[in-house]
From TrEMBL:
InterPro entries: WD40/YVTN_repeat-like_dom_sf, WD40_repeat_dom_sf, WD40_rpt, WDR18/Ipi3/RID3. Component of the RIX1 complex, composed of IPI1, RIX1/IPI2 and IPI3 in a 1:2:2 stoichiometry. The complex interacts (via RIX1) with MDN1 (via its hexameric AAA ATPase ring) and the pre-60S ribosome particles. It comes from the Eukaryota. Keywords: Nucleus, Repeat, rRNA processing, WD repeat. This is Pre-rRNA-processing protein IPI3. It comes from Dekkera bruxellensis (Brettanomyces custersii).
């Protein structure tokens, strides 16, 4: 099992053509580097991957340009350059909720959602390129977009967090939709959002902001549950896979660990932290007891300002043992959470780290090879429309879809063969002989008889003990007489 990390940056201001700006796809457990993408640059949260392997694609929203670049796996140069209505600051791929919930290991890339610098929310269908909706979501630029099952959660520089129902957005051409919820408790721009896994009834939204707070909201009740106040500006946010802790990237280049459960001193039972609108203030961690210092000497330059040492992106691996973080200087580190030691340093980027994505893959997976020989692979995505679709066009709903998989038929699961194998194995455990019930005579002895026999046995045992004591005393007397005679 291997974990593959994709990371890229905004690029350098000195390199206007971004000739020295690359995005990399590297292994987190070995020095192996799978791919590099040329002229790959985007704003924070402005790049997404449809997966890792053959036929998968990388989609990036170019920084400060009304342009989207599409890379095919195995190719360094962009396969497509698609113009869009305005520059996008963040994008996110939305998986189909029905397909994702019915199959644990498979999902279908359904929608491409983008947030612009003017606060608009764009929703495209990836299979057709149709622009389904454009919503005035924020008053200022949008900073982050996340999916929560059947909902889309967005954060912006206007300090607001908005929640939209996906069904309302894709039906916007029929009925004009409104946000499901709007949270305006922050006072400065929202920097990152984390949504808990699970059902919608238990979903919790964690949002971080430059006002040095992390706020927890309930998706169902639409209420503020907990507020964490930190000593520094929170520039990025990540969570444990089991949501036992939050990892807040701070402006000073450290990651603050916030435990969401603690043991009760009297009962020693784990209890959730916060709730009911409670405000928890975290004191400065001068000894780094609850912090991870993930900057090295070359990135922690004393001449640099605090903003240049800030952690821009954080992500935790699948087992919650390591955290991958990137900073404003373009450094990307893999840090062990328990020991708080830097395990590896990935290739340095030219400019602030803008995106880090993590995927799981088998070490010997043939899909990770760069040589693509399958001619049936769809190399492009449909051109993204710049005008909202009307009811007549969406009624036709013509999409581009590739039927089938790259796997050979020999690797597929054969149900009939599995049933026959189980039947043959079951015969080994079958008992083909006959069993008879044999009754033993005298087995129904009454309890009183058993008690009498027990008392008699105890009496015999006591008599035998007394006889043994008598014999022992006589033996000792005879031994003394023998010793006396032998000494004479």
């Amino acid at each position: 099992m291997d974990e593959v990390a994709f990371y890229c940056s905004k690029g350098s201001d000195a390199d206007k053509k971004h000739l020295s700006t690359f995005g990399y796809l590297s292994s987190t457990h070995s020095p192996k580097q799978y791919l590099q993408y040329r002229q790959c640059y985007c704003d924070r949260n402005g790049a997404v991957l449809t997966g890792v392997g053959q036929e998968t694609k990388l989609i990036t929203a170019c920084y400060k340009k009304a342009l989207i670049q599409v890379y095919l796996y195995g190719k360094e140069a962009p396969e497509q350059r698609i113009p869009i209505p305005e520059p996008l600051t963040c994008i996110q791929i939305i998986d189909h909720p029905t397909i994702a919930s019915s199959s644990r290991n498979s999902s279908e890339n359904w929608l491409l959602v983008g947030g612009s610098s003017t606060g608009r929310l764009y929703v495209w269908e990836l299979s057709s390129g149709l622009l389904l909706a454009v919503k005035e979501c924020h008053y200022q630029s949008m900073t982050v977009i996340k999916q929560c099952n059947n909902y889309i959660v967005t954060g912006g520089a206007d300090s607001r967090v908005t929640v939209w129902k996906i069904t309302d957005l894709i039906s916007d051409h029929i009925v004009r939709s409104q946000p499901y919820a709007v949270f305006s408790n922050h006072t400065l721009p929202v920097t990152d959002i984390v949504v808990s896994a699970g059902l919608d009834d238990d979903a919790i939204i964690y949002s971080s902001s430059e006002d040095s707070t992390i706020r927890c909201y309930s998706l169902v009740s639409k209420q503020l549950l907990t507020t964490f106040v930190l000593p520094q500006k929170v520039t990025s946010l990540a969570s444990d896979p089991s949501f036992r802790a939050l990892y807040a990237g701070l402006q000073n280049g450290t990651i603050r660990v916030i435990n969401l459960y603690k043991a009760d001193p009297s009962s020693h039972v784990l209890e959730a932290v916060g709730g009911l609108g409670k405000v928890i203030t975290l004191k400065p961690d001068l000894n780094n007891d609850e912090s991870i210092a993930c900057i090295q000497s070359e990135s922690a330059d004393k001449n640099k300002s605090k903003e240049e040492n800030a952690i821009t992106k954080t992500i935790v691996n699948i087992d919650g043992t390591t955290i991958i973080c990137g900073d404003m200087s373009g450094y990307v580190f893999i840090v062990d959470i328990r020991t708080k030691q830097i395990q590896r340093k990935l290739k340095t980027l030219s400019g602030p780290v803008s995106q880090i994505l993590l995927f799981n893959a088998m070490c010997d997976d043939k899909k990770l090879t760069r040589d693509v020989k399958d001619k049936r692979i769809i190399r492009n995505i449909p051109i993204l429309k710049r005008v909202v679709v009307d009811s007549e066009i969406i009624g036709k709903h013509e999409i581009t879809k590739r039927l089938g998989h790259l796997e050979s038929t020999a690797e597929r699961f054969d149900v009939d063969e599995f049933i026959n194998t189980v039947q043959s194995q079951q015969k080994c455990f079958e008992n083909t002989g006959k069993s008879e019930i044999i009754s033993i005579s005298g087995s129904n002895t009454s309890t009183a008889t058993k008690l009498g026999e027990t008392a008699e046995l105890k009496k015999q045992l006591e008599q035998m003990g007394a006889s043994f004591s008598t014999l022992k005393s006589k033996y000792e007397e005879l031994y003394k007489e023998y010793a006396t005679i032998a000494n004479k």
